[in-house]
Amino acid sequence: MVIESDLSCSGLVRRFAGHAAVDHISLDVPAGTFFSILGPSGCGKTTLLRLLAGFDRPDEGDIFIRGQRMNDVAPNKRPVNMVFQHLALFPTMTVGDNIGYGLKRKKVPAAERRRRIARVLEQVGLPGLENRNPQDLSGGQRQRVALARCLVLEPTLLLLDEPLGALDLKLREQMKIELKHLQKAFGTTFVYITHDQSEAMVMSDQVAVMRNGRFDQVAPPEVLYREPATPFVAGFVGDNNRLAGKVVSVADGLASLRLEDGSVVHGRLASEGLGPGALAELYIRPESLVFTGADSPAGFSSLNARVRATLFDGANSRVEAEHLGQPIFARLPQDGSAPGLVPDAHLPLAWDPALACVFGVGSL
Ligand SMILES: Nc1ncnc2c1ncn2[C@@H]1O[C@H](COP(=O)(O)OP(=O)(O)OP(=O)(O)O)[C@@H](O)[C@H]1O
With a cut of 0.90, is the ipTM above it? Predict the structure, then answer.
């Protein structure tokens, strides 16, 4: 089956004063999907989005939307709309006029404009609010109007630049679920940039993790989480503990690592070409650590930590412990079955080696 791409880029480069902010990026976004670009501040997300929108031109590479080359097409001629973090609704216009602005510019007749405005308001869950003033809406409602204003134009592609960044935490949590549902309901292809891994993970079909102008990995959220391709992805997506050591053996896809205290732990080999003697790091997630008594389950790796504190946070409650002078976090069981976790108590922890990743130090 051939999946049609709404957006396809190859070898995109954008340099500023000799530094490549976007450094040979290629990507393919299938029609009707939610694609996020996730990365820390300064990694080049906005620069890439501006190239896609046409506000800036690549030094190298090509951009195709539905198979049409876009490099020389002006922003307003691209089948693309953009939603910004600081949404610029016109304060002196009603909600209806805000939404209808683009339609009017496209010379859509008034009766059809009214119909389309009413329909899109219904679709974003704000039926009948045409005559309201944007100032009289809540932050979440304003954000929905900003989306409606773009979606009413039926773009092939909607580019979203951290649109939830200005909202408070509770609203952000709610809006990320709503955005995901809206994207599916409209079937419009979304390209979303964010530095918030939880936003990217919850909403996206595919996430590109960006670092220094390049993509480290492009994959569905669950794959990023379970099989990070690089130490950066392992550290940036979700929480992870890191144990440093030296490889003592590699067999059947598992690496054994000797830690500073002489103990040997195991994890899935995640770097190519890693052999005995190499410096490596084992990544293990807090929720993959189990509390054990004297014996850990057969085949599990284990270590002895010491409790520093328990951090109660509802379903995300954790214990902070110390191992070889480094902090190590483990998720607290929800059924209250954790052992007595008083500060300084011994805390034996164990994990299934298949759930840990071992990367060579210095591997990309
Ligand atoms: N017009 C410009 N001139 C010079 N350098 C620029 C320009 N625009 C971006 N850069 C540089 O390119 C790099 C990437 O910036 P960009 O804004 O794309 O990052 P970002 O990932 O969007 O960051 P943030 O999340 O903080 O917005 C940065 O080092 C930035 O300083």
Answer: yes
